[in-house]
Amino acid sequence: MAAAGASPFRDRTSEFASLSQTLRRIGGNAPAPPQSQPNDPIAASPDRSEFNKKASRVGLRIHQTSQKIDRLSNLTKRSSIFDDRSKENEELTALIKNEITALNITISDLQTLQNMEIADGNYSGDRVVHLTAVCDDLKNRLMNVTKQFQDVLTTRTKNIKAHENRKQLFSTVVSRESPLKQPPSTTVKEPPPWSSSSDSSGANPQPSVSTGNMVQVGNQLRYALPQ
Fold this sequence. Notes:
Layout: H1 13-28, H2 45-78, H3 86-119, H4 125-177, E1 214-217, E2 220-223
């Protein structure tokens, strides 16, 4: 039996207050996220984003270069001996060559960055496959653009030769048909056989020596009588 004067109930007010504070802390504050480990693929998200940005810029530049090649092709087709656009063609050709060279260097640098990141082991297997596919796609696109440019240059060379041949033919035809380039025709009339030279005083010509039974007297031919 309980001792006289002792209460049969236990005061748990302090325990209840402590429990309430604990519940408030649990319900009011979300648990802290776990720290990413160095080998976690999520930790490499900033690098992945930078790679994607660079790859997107390279892809855009390849597309712009392809558009310039299409423009060069159209200029080559429209050129003629009466509409010579050789200067514009040469400037655009030089610009495209420089862009293709720069794109080759940029893709090479991007692939080097990819290989370094893969060697560090910061990417998962799927991410490595994705990076490799992106680099291969950019290289293939640039290769196709380069071939397209070479085909346009080949066509342009053929057109230039054809234009030169037409220019030469046109110049030859104009030269033949132009009256200014024709030499004046001169006809030399031979004097008649009975004409003879006269002296400066205007005297009558002397009879010529007889030939056979013919004798020339002045401007007349007469038969000589046989002796």
